[in-house]
Amino acid sequence: MDNSICQVYEDKIQSLEEEIKLLAEKYEDSQQESTFFSDEEILMSKKSFEREFWRESQGCESPSDLKAQLESLETDLSFLMKFTGIQFTSHFKKTMEKTRNRTVQKHRLSGNCHSLSFQLEFQLLEMQNKENVSVVVSDLSITMESGEDSGVSKFVSSIEEHGNLLAFFRSLSSYAEWYEHRRCTFLHFK
């Protein structure tokens, strides 16, 4: 082995040994500090910490309030699914990058609207400054079961280019409703 490589490894070993020594000293110091307190004081401190943690994690809301809020959200979601015909079957989210004022997430949604199925993949860039939060959709990819309808293909390409999810869902709802009507009508004549 080359001497320079050996030296690099020896330096790394020495660095790790020093770090172990510092951590061992910190551990010993913390053990000595804990012996200064009685068992009762430690238990009281632990219980106080648990109560404080419980309050923070619960957000000062009772379980009945949370249950009522969940039921209200489920009712709203059910109404929206009946109203628009859009039903999501799966959602996958992965955080790609997160800093103090910038977050990039990759989303994959699939679902159906009436009898048409769809799948979306996109990245969501969320930037926060002192006054507001801005959100930008990028890398939008839409896969739809639309048959050979060239109008839908052009529409989907336009939506992907502009990254306009709201326009997609608005148009999907009305298109899928009329697509279902046409399909039923043609089945009737067959």
From TrEMBL:
Q: Which residues form a coiled coil?
A: 6-33
Keywords carried by this UniProt record: Coiled coil
Give the GO biological process terms: CENP-A containing chromatin assembly
| Keyword Coiled coil belongs to the record | yes
One Gene Ontology cellular component term attached to this UniProt record is: chromosome, centromeric region
Q: Which domain of life is it from?
A: Eukaryota
One Pfam family named in its UniProt record: CENP-P
What InterPro entries does this protein's entry cite? CENP-P
What PANTHER family does this protein map onto? CENTROMERE PROTEIN P
What is the protein's name according to its record? CENPP protein
Record organism: Ciccaba nigrolineata
